[in-house]
What we know:
By secondary structure, the chain is of the alpha/beta class. The protein has two domains: about 1-85 and about 165-250, Rossmann fold (3-Layer(aba) Sandwich); about 95-160. Helix content is about 35%, strand content about 25%. The protein is built from nine helices and ten strands. The protein has helices at about 45-55, 75-85, 100-105, 105-110, 115-130, 145-160, 175-195, 205-210, 240-245, and strands at about 10-15, 20-30, 35-40, 60-65, 70, 85-90, 165-170, 195-200, 215-220, 220-230. The strands form two sheets. The protein has a six-stranded mixed beta sheet with strand order 6-7-8-3-9-10, sandwiched between helices. The longest helix has 18 residues, at about 175-195. It is globular, with a radius of gyration of 18 Å.
Amino acid sequence: MSGSIPKLEWKGVYKAFESKHVLSGLDLSVERGRSLVIIGGSGQGKSVTIKIAAGLMQADAGQMLIDGRDVSSLKGGEQRKLSGQFGMLFQGGALFDSLSVWENVAFRLINADKVSRKDAKARAIEALEKVRIGRQAADLYPNELSGGMQKRVGLARAVVGAPEVIFFDEPTTGLDPITSRAINALILEQVKGLGCTAVTITHDLDSARTIGDEIAMLNDGVIVWRGPAADIDRSGNAYVDQFVRGDPDGPIKPAI
């Protein structure tokens, strides 16, 4: 892919909150149709990285490029068009308790894309079926679902608009190992089926190995290692090796 324009590119991105520097000149790119997983300790800037890419947060300095275009230069309709390319599975599911399952899935279709409720429901049910949730659950409410089912509803919402880019924020947090593997398999299936670009942040190495083409290690606001997912257990990088072992001793300092 030499010479191609990355789908996503962070160029010298800085972000701080008061005196705490979270991103310190982040350089990172993701090619179109690839799945990148970002790992790293707590408080190292993983969530900030994807929030900047998704337009949910502004960088203090540097550039965030989508298809080679600096997103800070986009205005009005261009920004809305860009945001329409994105889907996101939030860490806690972030479902609206007052809305039914299908209304949660169709939220963007109805409120941003102005799709009729009838058509939006049909598309929501189709998306639910893709993540193994039957149409009989469409009229239930989130509090009637298990944690694993809520996560699948969140995934259905992320893919319903056939996005070009999907961000996954800790997709298996709070799930048991069996449910986690089922969610990983569904994520992989949907990403491959859509042919989209995916960026995932996670502490779950099983998830990283399953859904990532590549893995990047973020520490102190910069990438300290990047390589194929298959190389994560033999990286030869002190930061990665410590993270994989879960060893409190090493260059990564525990966030306590």
